[in-house]
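Extended Data, panel c. Modelled sequence:
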Amino acid sequence: MADCADVRGTMRLLPFSPTYTSVQSMRVRSCVVSRSRYPLERLVRLTLDDNGCLVVAQRSGGGRSAWVRPEADLLRKLEAKPGMARRSLRRTPRSGVGLLDAVSHHLANQVAGSLRRAWRSGRVRLPRPSDPDHLPQLVSWQSSETSSPGAMLPWDAAGVGCLLGRSRIHALVALPSRPTRALLLDLRRWHELGYSPAPLADPSSL
């Protein structure tokens, strides 16, 4: 079985079925880079560490925070000009170095956690011959099993299997449920980041 700490891949998204679009809260915030307003679920929360540097924060944490849409070009701009978050934080950040990698790692862990929760709930499972064609499939990176609507996971078959305690998993079926909607939303946000993921964290730490 592959070491989960060494699993890498790239993300490709297949069309989502409108049936499984997540209905989220309409709370919105402004991205500190683009100044456009988005639902909270499409943004990443940032705060300052003890050294005054921008870091990724938990969504529900307290204190002053800034919000950014997790697109690579926006994050690069914020890394170069961290002062764009000054108004939200009421303090000028000293540095934004490493922010792009930090957001990528944060979202990869979020996708991994959502996948494990959906798997444990039984609403994401291995395909069965009797499954209807309209059910979304979650296929491993580089898999050829892409005929059904759904999404491609950012790990290969060994990585998905490692995450879920199996040897290799090439495809999964997503059944309607709250954990499944959360997983599909996380995959969409991950895709919007637009670049290869950081190594998958050890699943035991999620």
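The beta strands are 28-30, 37-39, 44-48, 54-56, 66-68, 124-125, 137-139, 150-152, 171-174. This feature is highlighted in the accompanying rendering.
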